[in-house]
């Protein structure tokens, strides 16, 4: 064991935003060039409720969902952020320590809700919501 005492818990809003940013400053999305939800070929960079068809994407990515996933997809289906975290935006929204709040958006959400600063109210359980556990070092 590396640490004497740790606590595993949900992140608060500030912790989540720091982790999601992947070290980028002032970009709405967590990937390099984080101002857009598509790459230069028109392929979506996360699993969202995409209404426009995918551009010049690989054949396996073209389907009725437009972004490569009709429901939640395996976490490594899209590129990680600068800290190596996958699907920080899209796929499943992530619960925060604050009750009823999520961040990151999901496969059911429009791109707006996948932006790092946005917080979504979640009143009931949903297949579009998951969680990312943070480890807090209490004693080294």
In brief:
With 140 residues, the chain is mainly β.
Helices and strands, with pairings:
Blueprint lengths: L4 E5 L3 H9 L71 E3 L5 E3 L15 E3 L7 E2 L3 E6 L1
Parallel strand pairs: 2-5
Antiparallel strand pairs: 1-6, 2-3, 3-4
Describe the structure.
With 140 residues, the protein is mainly beta. 6% of the residues lie in helices and 16% in strands. The protein has 1 helix and 6 strands, in the order βαβββββ. A 4-stranded mixed sheet has the order 4-3-2-5, with no helix packed on it. The protein has a two-stranded antiparallel ribbon with strand order 1-6. The protein is globular and about 50 Å long. The N and C termini lie close together (10 Å). The model is unreliable at 60-64 (pLDDT under 50).
Radius of gyration: 16 Å
Strand neighbour order, sheet with most strands: 4-3-2-5
- By helix and strand content, what is the structural category? mainly beta
- The number of helical segments is 1
Low-confidence runs: 60-64
Order of helices and strands: EHEEEEE
Largest sheet: 4 strands, mixed
The total beta strand count reads 6
Helix content: under 10%
Measured between the Cα atoms of the first and last residue, the distance is 10 Å
Q: Determine the mean pLDDT.
A: 87
Name the shape in a single word.
globular
Strand content: 15-25%
Summary keywords:
1 helix, mainly beta, 140 residues, 6 strands, four-stranded mixed beta sheet, 6% helix, two-stranded antiparallel sheet
């Amino acid at each position: 064991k590396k640490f004497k005492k740790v606590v595993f818990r949900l992140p608060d809003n500030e912790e989540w935003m720091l982790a999601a940013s992947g070290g980028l400053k002032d970009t709405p999305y967590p990937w390099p060039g984080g101002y857009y939800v598509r790459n230069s070929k028109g392929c979506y960079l996360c699993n969202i409720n995409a209404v426009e068809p995918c551009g010049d994407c690989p054949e396996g990515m073209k389907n009725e969902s437009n972004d490569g996933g009709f429901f939640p997809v395996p976490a490594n289906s899209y590129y990680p952020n600068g800290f190596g975290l996958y699907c920080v935006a899209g796929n499943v929204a992530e619960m925060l320590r604050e009750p009823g709040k999520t961040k990151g958006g999901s496969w059911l959400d429009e791109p707006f809700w996948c932006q790092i600063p946005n917080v979504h109210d979640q009143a009931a359980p949903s297949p579009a919501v998951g969680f990312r556990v943070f480890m807090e070092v209490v004693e080294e």
